[in-house]
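Q: Convert this sequence to structure tokens.
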Amino acid sequence: MSDVEQGVQAQETELGQEAELEQPTVRDGGVQGELDATEPTQEPEELGAPSLSAAIEALLLLADEPMSVVSLAQATRQTVDDVDVTVRALAVEYDEAVRGFELREIAGGWRYYTRAECSPLVERFVLDGQQARLTQASLETLAVIAYRQPVTRGRVSAVRGVNVDGVIRTLVARGLIEEAGHEQESQAILYRTTSTFLERLGIASLEDLPPLAEHLPDLADLEDVLDSVAFGD
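A:
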């Protein structure tokens, strides 16, 4: 072999060794797994609050309706699991400290309420007439809708024995009831209660409403009468 051929062969050998050194090592997870392992972990975004607990407290105080864990997680830019653990820990903390307020899970979200033991004080404060109250007619209409929903305006009128058009408008304006489609036969508007209704009662769902049987022993007869009448708006 000539000196030229030996020189070319030596260069090819060196190039081959360099190529092997430059080739990434493939381990479990492949090349991408190796690259991902070396990527720096992303730092959590700033809360804009001293802690996650403080952030959740501020948001719940600001909100005018219950906030779900998902909404709180989106607002704080934290994981749903972290927010769920934190909000439940806050609820326990308030209970153990017997604070004047408590954190309840209501209507699919979390909201602050005054503690039941403070009700005498709260009642004295609100009984000054500053807080507008529902009339007896509104309360009766709301009760009918709550227990028979979805229900038409005509059916509510039949139960109460009076026209309820004005009362229905008032309840809708206050956000306690809402439209829920139309009755198939008459196309009359159906009404149902809202999440605000659950909030005001302090219950999580309609299943928590007290049973009517003990208060209305003839409820079955009433159902037969109502079902025999055609209703419309």
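DSSP finds eleven helices and five strands in the chain.
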